[in-house]
Design goal:
29 helices; Rossmann fold; transit peptide; disordered N terminus; seven-stranded mixed beta sheet; 978 residues; single chain; 14% strand; 4 domains; DH_E1; isopeptide bond
């Protein structure tokens, strides 16, 4: 009871006395008015014979009866119980709050927890003993130790003085441990044992020499760069050189535990050092990037050296095991790479069948200000234990500079530590003084063991300093004069540790100097070789190579795309599975029964709606061995209750069925998973997942297309320019529900104008290409489509995999068209020989007599159905042609040129339901004019410019729509303007 109680010790004291009373009663004694008497029945004594005089004072204790002893000892019982409870409470106080007293700041001037006051229940002087009802006379008393501490080692009791000393050694030196918020007793006991056991933090002389050698490499690498390129930005590691041995320790221990693939993400500080001394990137490749005359050999813009990634497989010399290390490339947007790393890690685990994270793991590095300030950190932590997103534990290493650029931590966060966000997932947090290399290495060993044992996240907080400013060209004295005066006096950690080992006799001065000279020579030789590098090959810096994908039988793959159609037998089979429940004794909802019945009828009629077309695209790719992963908020059912890829038994809790996984005997697996309510984190995760393999279709669906804007950083920094910056192809698909149905400004627009503005095709140049459709796709940075038919949606999904390369695909998916009776496609549009239609020409009376057509309406997506309905109502089928642009980027110059030439007398009008300053108009207009060589004007029919994407008033919405239609079909509307 005492060992497990969380109650204050005084209340525990009351309860304990009550329990002692019960124990006494059960032993045959009870207390009455301060006396203890026997409750055992005995013969009644005769009057006058019951009294016995007390024994003389000289009587020894051993001659007293048990009852007599208890009577005499009773006055001391309360004090004895209270003292033992006080000691147990004292031990617990150190376990909970000892980190607040730990000596964490290497500079000795700052409080890592932003609080200079000391906890009242930590014994920092003998005066504090009074808090527990103890005094100096109790220091030499021996107290029994509870089982919730390991400070005794093999001893079960210790004097109070020694108890306090050992607690201080465990919790108040250069390591501060936060773990008592964890609600798992086994995990807490595991951590206690690692930090409380006397003498546990011991290193052999060989281990100390290895640590020194790693510090030499870390320190001398930065010094070498400073000597050679003193005026170049490199975001060096000075002040936290211990990061290199820290990371190598985590990797060594993890390799020892069976890990053979480590995926890392980190900001720019120390990145070059990590590439050189952890990943083992060739030094000449790093040094040559400082040459301002270096030319780029590969396509794209490239990126600065401290943003690039790396993939390398090598022998771990400590464990003699092969290990693969990947450092993910990332932009300056701090912490944006976190979910990307997690997604890539999850994918690698998935593809090698590592269901417990024993072979593949991730390490994330953070800055202190970013860890506290960037919300994506919280979003990523909340993915850590979700079944479809867990990577079974990540080791987080925080390089805690105690400053953010120029911002004091007291102005940068409200929490005591920058790492407090990790507490939400019960991750233990190990704060450590970065100027104590042995403490750092010990903590990193424990962190790696924790991850291997419990497969949960853990945080190592390296409390350090930044010797230079934000970069090597910055002047930190402007804003932190006192801190940097102290830093200028601070002896580097390598020098301090070398002096310690020399004083211990572990190494001597000549050995130390020889180690330095040996690494300096390596750097000089690499520098000499780097001068021969005249061309920068970004491909040498790939973090996710796809061996074998870009070649076929040793030759580059052909720039062609086969038909994306499917034979009718497969279409029918997939349709039948999609409209059934392939599991026996499975009760589905009555409403779902009707949906499945409707699907079955469509299959009999050889037609598909949007959901069934998606089903057939997915199912056919699964047959071909392509893994499919669909993720996002409510994607299992679909936001609009149209998909239903996961069926739920109405009578058995948590019993589900995924019919898509019952299509073929040896099919690839289908993963469909509802995500947490995060766009930034989840899209980053899926992007990382798509990086791992080209032979997978990875899709992220926004609940509404509007909501992608909270993931804008991933779109802007990774998806749009990823290939240009890092020569890294990625085939991720974004499904963004879009359409103006009068649902208000937050549920209408996926902001197509933003995606189109970021397309890299030139609006003023008509491309001259062979294999126009495929070659144009190869040259673009991403593909943007707005399909108007289920068949075209089917084809574009299949094309995404059948192309000989990978590009991100942005699809503006519909809402009302999911159930629109005219938004149906025939099997005939999906059979072998068919393919994705970049443009769908008018197929009605207008196309039969093109010379009579007075106006061609170019449009995309849902508005087509509004236009055809209005054209029919006005009986203008022969006067107005409607051409659908299904693929917006890259722009179908060739097909639209054909359409414009087909109607020589017609006006050209771009029609859209979005407002004029939004949607597609600004993108389409210059490209259409280039297509027709500016022979005619391109008019606009649509809503007026507006600040909001849509009105929230239904009547206003309908009025705007009617005005749009009136403009589109009023053949005199543009005469005055002309």
């Amino acid at each position: 009871y005492l060992e497990g109680s969380l109650l204050p010790w005084r209340e525990g004291n009351k309860l304990l006395k009550t329990r002692l009373g019960l124990i006494a009663q059960s032993s045959g004694f009870k207390s009455q008015a301060g006396r203890v008497v026997s409750s055992v029945s005995c013969p009644k004594a005769a009057p006058g014979t019951a009294y016995q005089s007390p024994p003389p004072l000289s009587t020894s204790l051993s001659t007293l009866s048990q009852a007599q002893f208890l009577v005499q000892a009773q006055p001391n019982v309360d004090k004895l119980v209270e003292d033992h409870l006080a000691v147990q409470s004292l031990i617990r106080a150190y376990q909970i709050r000892g980190h607040h007293v730990a000596q964490l700041d290497p500079l000795g001037i700052l409080d890592a927890d932003l609080d200079s006051s000391l906890p009242a229940d930590i014994i920092t002087s003998t005066d504090k003993l009074g808090f527990y009802g103890l005094d100096e006379s109790d220091l030499d008393k021996v107290f029994h130790l509870p089982t919730t501490t390991f400070i005794g080692g093999n001893e079960s009791a210790l004097p109070l003085r020694e108890i306090i000393r050992r607690l201080e050694m465990a919790y108040c030196q250069h390591i501060g441990v936060e773990f008592m918020f964890i609600n798992d007793l086994e995990q807490c006991q595991w951590i206690r044992q690692k930090f409380e056991t006397p003498g546990i933090m011991q290193f052999t002389n060989e281990e100390k020499r290895t640590l020194l050698a790693r510090l030499v490499r870390s320190t001398r690498f930065e010094e070498f760069l400073h000597r050679k390129w003193s005026s170049e930005k490199r975001f060096g590691l000075e002040g936290c050189e211990v990061l290199i041995p820290a990371l190598k320790t985590i990797i060594d221990k993890s390799s020892e535990k069976g890990v053979d693939y480590v995926i890392m993400g980190m900001p720019h500080r120390g990145r070059l050092n990590v590439l050189a001394n952890v990943i083992r990137k060739e030094l000449e490749q790093i040094f040559c990037q400082f040459d301002s005359k270096l030319e780029a050999a590969d396509e794209g813009s490239g990126d600065v050296k401290y943003h690039l990634g790396m993939y390398h497989r090598r022998i771990n010399r400590v464990t003699d095991r092969n290990i693969t290390l990947s450092l993910v490339a990332n932009p300056s947007h701090l912490e944006a790479a976190d979910p990307v790393v997690q997604g890539k890690t999850k994918a690698e685990q998935f593809y090698c069948g590592d269901t417990e994270g024993k072979k593949v793991m991730s390490i994330l590095l953070h800055g202190d200000a970013a860890f506290a300030g960037q919300g994506i950190v919280y979003e990523t932590f909340h993915l850590s234990d979700l079944p479809s997103y867990t990577t079974h534990g990540t080791v987080h290493v925080v390089v805690n500079n105690q400053i953010g650029f120029t911002t004091d931590p007291r102005m940068a966060r409200s929490s005591p530590y920058p790492t407090d966000v990790a507490r939400v997932v019960n991750a233990p947090i190990f704060h450590v003084n970065a100027d104590d290399p042995e403490a750092v290495v010990y903590v990193c060993n424990v962190a790696a063991e924790w991850r291997s044992t419990f497969h949960k996240d853990v945080v190592v907080d390296l409390v350090c300093y930044r010797r230079n400013g934000h970069n090597e060209m910055d002047e930190p004295m402007f804003t932190q004069p006192l801190m940097y005066k102290q830093i200028r006096k601070q002896k580097p950690v390598l020098q301090k540790y070398a002096e310690l080992l020399i004083s211990q006799g572990v190494v001597n001065q000549p050995e130390y100097e020889e180690e330095i000279a040996k690494y300096d020579k390596i750097c000089e030789e690499a520098h000499a070789r780097s001068k021969d590098e005249k061309i920068l090959h970004i491909k040498h810096w790939l973090d996710s190579p796809w061996p074998g994908f870009f070649t076929l039988d040793g030759q580059p793959r052909s720039m062609t795309c086969p038909s994306t159609g499917l034979n009718e037998e497969d279409l029918t089979h997939i349709g039948q599975v999609a409209s059934s429940v392939p599991v026996e004794d499975f009760t589905i909802h009555g409403g779902l029964s009707r949906i499945l019945k409707t699907r079955g009828e469509m299959v009999k009629n050889r037609t598909v709606d949007w959901a069934l077309a998606e089903y057939m695209a997915f199912g056919s790719l699964l047959k071909e061995g392509i893994h499919i992963r669909l993720s996002g908020q409510d994607v299992e059912r679909g936001t609009f209750s149209h998909r239903h890829h996961v069926l739920h038994d109405q009578n058995v809790d948590k019993r589900t069925c995924i019919p898509m996984n019952h299509l073929w005997p040896n099919q690839a697996p289908y993963t469909v998973c509802n995500s947490s309510l995060s766009e930034y984190g989840v899209l980053g995760f899926e992007l990382g997942f798509a990086m791992a393999s080209p032979n997978a279709l990875v899709l992220w669906e926004a609940q509404f297309g509007d909501f992608h804007n909270t993931a804008q950083c991933i779109i802007d920094q990774f998806i749009c320019p990823g290939q240009a910056k890092w020569v890294r192809q990625n085939g991720i698909v974004l499904l963004l529900p879009h359409g103006m149905e009068g649902m208000g400004p937050e549920h209408s627009s996926a902001r197509p104008e933003r995606f189109l503005q970021m397309c890299n095709d030139d609006p003023d140049v008509f491309p001259k290409l062979d294999d126009f459709d495929v070659r144009q796709l190869y040259d673009c940075n991403w593909i943007v489509v707005n399909c108007s038919t289920p068949a075209n949606f089917f084809h574009v999904l299949r094309r995404q995999i059948l192309l000989p390369f990978r590009k991100p695909l942005i699809i503006f998916t519909p809402k009302s068209l999911l159930r629109h009776p005219e938004a149906r496609s025939s099997f005939d549009d999906m059979l072998p020989g068919t393919h994705f239609l970049r443009v769908i020409p008018d197929g009605g009376p207008a196309a039969q007599s093109p010379e009579r057509v007075k106006r061609v309406l170019f449009c995309t997506g849902k508005v087509y159905y509004d236009l055809t309905r209005e054209r029919k109502a006005r009986q203008m089928e022969a006067d107005v042609a409607i051409t659908r642009v299904e693929q917006l980027s890259p722009f179908p110059f060739d097909l639209l040129q054909r359409e414009a030439q087909k109607y020589p007398a017609a006006e050209l009008v771009w029609c859209q339901e979005e407002h004029k300053n939004q949607g597609y108009y600004d993108y389409v207009k210059p490209r259409l004019r280039t297509t027709i060589n500016r022979a005619k004007p391109v008019w606009y029919a649509g809503r007026e410019p507006a600040a909001a994407p849509a009105t929230g008033n239904k009547k206003t919405h309908l009025t705007e729509l009617q005005r749009l239609l009136d403009t589109a079909f009023n053949l005199d509307a543009f005469k005055d303007l002309a």
